Amino acid sequence: MCDYSLAGLRSRLAVTGEELIAYRFPTGSIGLTSPAELEAHKHEVRGWWSRLRAHDWPCAVCVPPGARLVLRDIPKRLQTQLGLKETEEATFIQIDALPGRHRDALRFANNQEALLQRLAEGQRLQVIYLPWDDEPEESRGEQLELAAVEPPY
């Protein structure tokens, strides 16, 4: 849902219909956040120590395996490498369970896979389906409570 490298940051679950943006977090990893989060943190210019405080950075938006996303403005390099068009639908997957390795990835209709780390900063994505969209509303609350995580500091 959120790569190991984003574990110390504020995070929340994605919402169906939501627009997301690929962002390089202070951990050095590419993750997903919302345009509103980016805007809220855009003007915060602080000293180097602010990198150590999770609230100074945009909230990471976690996407569960099985979610479907639409990617827009896919960079030419990825289009060429993976045989993609400028806009593609993809399924969010996790490809590696080994500790200390990035695992969040996208599987495209042509069965090509790409780690989130290969996305360009600023890449736009839209959540079009989440695995629990077909579940009754009352069973979702528990999942949402578990996913809203604040780091311990």
Structural overview:
With about 150 residues, the chain is an alpha+beta fold. The two termini are about 20 Å apart. The chain is built from three helices and nine strands. A hairpin with a 4-residue loop joins strand 7 (about 105-110) and strand 8 (about 115).
What's the structural blueprint in terms of helices and strands?
Blueprint: E1 11-13, E2 19-24, E3 30-33, H1 35-42, E4 60-62, E5 68-72, H2 76-82, E6 88-94, E7 104-108, E8 113-115, E9 124-129, H3 137-147
Parallel strand pairs: 1-4
Antiparallel strand pairs: 2-3, 2-9, 5-6, 5-9, 6-7, 7-8
Q: What oligomeric state do these chains adopt?
A: single chain
Which blocks of ≥5 consecutive residues have pLDDT under 50? 45-50, 146-153
Helix content estimate: 10-25%
Order of secondary-structure elements = EEEHEEHEEEEH
Structure summarized in a few sentences:
By secondary structure, the protein is of the alpha+beta class. The protein is 17% helix and 27% strand. The strands form 2 sheets. The chain has a 7-stranded antiparallel beta sheet. A two-stranded parallel sheet has the order 1-4.
